[in-house]
Design brief:
Distance between the termini: 10 Å
Radius of gyration: 19 Å
Number of strands: 7
Subcellular location: Cytoplasm
Helix content: 40-55%
Subunit structure: Monomer.
Strand content: 5-15%
Low-confidence stretches: none
Catalytic activity: AMP + ATP = 2 ADP
Protein name: Adenylate kinase
Pathway: Purine metabolism; AMP biosynthesis via salvage pathway; AMP from ADP: step 1/1
Length: about 220
Amino acid sequence: MKLILLGAPGAGKGTQATFISKEFGIPQISTGDMLRAQVKAGTPLGLEAKKHMDAGGLVPDAVIIGMVKDRLTQDDCKNGYLFDGFPRTIPQAQAMKDAGVPIEFVLEIDVPDSDIIERMAGRRAHLPSGRTYHVKFNPPKVEGKDDVTGEDLVQRDDDKEETVKKRLDVYHSQTKPLVEFYGKWAAEGDAAAPKVRKIAGVGSVDDITKAVFNALK
């Protein structure tokens, strides 16, 4: 199973990625983890990436693709792999296609923006313990207070409504077009093109997981 998981921030990709990895015995590949590992190991690609990161710039696609190809040669990728959060842009998808990185499925978890804003903007956290709550779906016993310590809960900056809206704008402008990119490729009848599937990411986690596995048959 070789697949790319797409979906807006807060669409539940992380949860489903864990289930997919377990079901198919494949690693979840995140470019963030890959970058950190290569930088830590001091590989040529890692050093090149660090140079750009230290300068506050984006790591060039060529470097990322180099890391992806390197990562896919490792033993745990024998049965396949799951890309979560990559590719993010059309140039990255094109570079993967040009590099001949095999992909069988592109699965989009589709959630309306209004639901994502409600999900994320309602989150509250107890920072010292990492416990999280939701004002509507999983409220604390006492409003604004951690159940265990009684300390104040906070809303992380990332979860504030204006931040969530900005992240959704970036997703719609940069990442959502990937669905079209892969759809077009599949329509060309190229045997190497992945199958593009879309499921609704609304409902219970179990129902969404069932829909995911059905889509990957």
